[in-house]
Automatic annotation (TrEMBL):
Annotated InterPro entries: AraC-bd, Homeodomain-like_sf, HTH_AraC, RmlC-like_jellyroll, RmlC_Cupin_sf
Stored Gene3D superfamilies: Homeodomain-like (1.10.10.60), Jelly Rolls (2.60.120.10)
Stored PROSITE patterns: HTH_ARAC_FAMILY_2 (PS01124)
HTH araC/xylS-type domain location: 187-286
Transmembrane portions of the chain: none
Keyword DNA-binding attributed: yes
Key words of the record: DNA-binding, Transcription, Transcription regulation
Domain of life according to the entry: Bacteria
Listed name of the protein: AraC family transcriptional regulator
Pfam families: AraC_binding, HTH_18
Length: 291
């Protein structure tokens, strides 16, 4: 997907870029870059869109994004309010396995690491049980330099390659390549849906945002996202519902359902189970047991 191609500035004396972001909200546009990205969300919450899939994120989540994988960390709507004092904090590591590091990964001794990188092109979220180890190693990389930093980085890759049960962020089937104009249009549609998920959005409303007829919009959206409009909207709403259910800011499940754009608790329960394979109460139980 040719979406707002970024070039990460690489210092001449470094092959690994370590960046600390402290901002009012995450960069709000769908984009990609040739560097692999590891993001440790230290502060902030919202929805990550990676390729054609969505994932809620909250503090202490860690994500691996593959090279040229279209993505957007969409901060919750409250971060964009004019008087908002919220901020996001993230520690990010970028590296290009085909750039300055190519010779390292072509060594016979690093074959397993190269295989791990190739198998992780669709990204992954670090499971809860491994977060402490990975975040500790990311801090060691941040606080070191030169040869020490490179060795710590290789150790992180070795550590990650030994973990099991890390399902990809996106399905194996990729959406078709699109022009930059189409990519920006898709990004605008994503933004519109994610900012208005709590309202009664119709197909006609979304089509107007793309300046298309409903019929043409349906074909365009399905072709480039592998989602129907309704399935994407439902996933956004359920992602938001999952965050609200586990944040403990609402009195009951029905309140969460209505604040996420559902007009009946029955429909909410049905869609929730379709998206997550669990009922809302089962999801809450499973989440708090794992935490």
């Amino acid at each position: 997907m040719k979406v707002l191609q970024f070039t990460i500035p690489v210092p001449l004396d470094k092959s690994i870029i370590v960046q600390k972001d402290v901002l009012p909200f995450f960069y709000p546009h769908l984009h990609r870059h040739q560097e692999i990205q590891m993001s440790w969300i230290q502060q902030g919450e919202g929805t990550l869109v990676a390729d054609n899939n969505m994932h809620a994120f909250r503090p202490n989540d860690i994500f691996w994004l593959g090279a040229n994988q279209p993505h957007i960390f969409k901060s919750e709507a409250s971060y964009f309010q004019p008087k908002s004092r919220k901020k996001i904090v993230a520690l990010v590591i970028f590296f290009n396995p085909n750039g300055e590091l190519a010779s390292l990964f072509n060594l016979p001794e690093t074959k397993l690491l190269k295989n791990f990188i190739m198998q992780s092109q669709s990204g992954f979220k670090v499971p809860e049980v491994y977060k402490a180890e990975v975040s500790s190693k990311m801090m060691q990389i941040t606080n070191s330099s030169g040869t020490d930093q490179l060795l710590q980085f290789v150790d992180l890759l070795k550590q990650l390659s030994g973990y099991a049960d890390m399902p990809p962020l996106a399905t194996a089937q990729k959406s078709q390549m699109v022009s930059e104009h189409e990519g920006i249009r898709i990004g605008n549609i994503y933004n519109y849906i994610m900012q208005n998920y709590d309202k009664a959005i119709t197909l006609e409303d979304a089509a107007k945002q793309a300046h298309m007829t409903p019929q043409a919009f349906c074909r365009f959206f399905k072709k480039h996202t592998l989602h129907t409009f309704v399935s994407f909207l439902n996933e956004v709403r359920i992602n938001e519902a999952c965050k609200k259910l586990t944040d403990g800011a609402f009195d009951n499940i029905a309140t969460v359902a209505y604040t996420c754009g559902f007009n009946s608790i029955t429909n909410f329960n049905r869609v929730f189970k379709t998206v997550t394979t669990q009922s809302p109460s089962e999801y809450m139980t499973s989440y708090f047991q794992s935490v």
